[in-house]
Design goal:
alpha+beta; Immunoglobulin-like; 3-stranded antiparallel β-sheet; 2 helices; 25% strand; elongated
C-alpha cells in the first residue's frame, strides 16, 4: 500500500444550460421568427388553395368530357337574345348519331337556373335540325318566360340524362 494520499475526484459544476423560455431574444429576432412562421402558414394556405382549385378544375373537366361523350355535343355558350325573352343554347356537334338527343321531343333539353332551380325548357320554335353534321355549331332556342334567366346567371344544361353545370349566361 502506498502512503500517498488518495486523490478524490471532485467534479466541477457545469454551467446550467438555459431553457428556451429563459433565452433572451432581441425584438428583431422575434420579428424574424414570426415572419418565418407567417411565411410558412401563407405557403401552406396557398398550397391548399391551389390544390383545391386544381381538384375542382379536374372535376369540371371530367364532367364536361362525360357530358360530351354521352350527348355527342359540346356546349359553346348560352346567351340571352330578343331583349332577354329568348335563351339560345349554342352547341357544336361532336357525334351526329348521339347529338340527335338534343332534339328529342319527349325529353327536350332544359336549362336550370342554379340559384333558383327554375327550369327553362319551352322551345321557341317547334322545329329543329334533323340532320346534324360533325363540327357544325347549331342553336336551340328557348322561351325565357318571366325573365327567369339574366346575363350572369349560372345554369345547368340537361340533355337526356346528361348534365353539365356552371354555364354562365351571356
Amino acid at each position: 500500500m502506498s502512503d500517498a494520499p488518495s486523490a478524490e475526484l471532485i467534479a466541477e459544476p457545469t454551467p446550467a444550460t438555459p431553457h428556451a423560455s429563459e433565452t433572451t431574444r432581441s425584438p428583431r429576432q422575434r420579428v424574424a421568427a414570426l415572419a418565418v412562421l407567417a411565411a410558412a402558414f401563407l405557403g401552406l394556405a396557398g398550397w391548399i388553395t391551389v390544390s383545391t382549385m386544381e381538384a375542382r378544375a379536374e372535376a369540371a373537366a371530367r364532367q364536361v368530357t362525360a357530358f360530351e361523350d354521352v350527348t355527342g355535343i359540346r356546349v359553346v355558350r348560352v346567351v340571352l337574345t330578343a331583349g332577354g325573352g329568348i335563351v339560345e343554347l349554342h352547341y357544336q356537334v361532336l357525334d351526329p348519331d348521339k347529338a340527335v338527343d338534343v332534339h328529342d321531343d319527349e325529353h327536350p333539353p332544359a336549362l336550370i337556373d342554379e340559384k333558383t332551380g327554375a327550369i327553362v325548357a319551352v322551345p321557341f320554335h317547334d322545329h329543329a335540325f334533323r340532320e346534324l353534321h360533325t363540327a357544325v355549331t347549331y342553336r336551340q332556342l328557348f322561351m325565357n318566360g318571366g325573365g327567369i334567366l339574366h346575363r350572369g346567371s349560372t345554369v345547368k344544361v340537361v340533355v337526356g340524362d346528361a348534365i353539365i353545370e356552371r354555364i354562365e349566361v351571356g
